[in-house]
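Translate structure to sequence.
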């Protein structure tokens, strides 16, 4: 009875290890393709590639969250607004300079 249990445990442990073994087949299952079959396959591949060329490239961004992001920080080389267009400067006493 102990021998039967030992054999069952070894079988359970060996199953996953056996499943990882590569399946090596040195003999071909099917004969190689005839020249006519190769020509048909080449023509099919050529038609497929031509069809792929007809698909237009997407120009627009497909970013659904694009409008939700914060604006890009301004570059330090950009000119700032002049002092004349900005808010009036305040003096030390708190009144606006005219």
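Result:
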């Amino acid at each position: 009875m102990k021998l039967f249990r030992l054999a069952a445990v070894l079988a359970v442990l060996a199953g996953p290890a056996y499943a990882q073994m590569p399946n090596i087949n040195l003999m071909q299952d099917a004969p190689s393709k005839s020249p006519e079959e190769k020509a048909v396959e080449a023509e099919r591949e050529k038609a497929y590639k031509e069809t792929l060329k007809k698909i237009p490239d997407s120009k627009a961004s497909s970013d659904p969250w694009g409008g939700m992001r914060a604006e890009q920080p301004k570059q330090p080389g950009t000119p700032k607004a002049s002092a004349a267009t900005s808010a009036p400067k305040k003096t030390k006493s708190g009144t606006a300079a005219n």
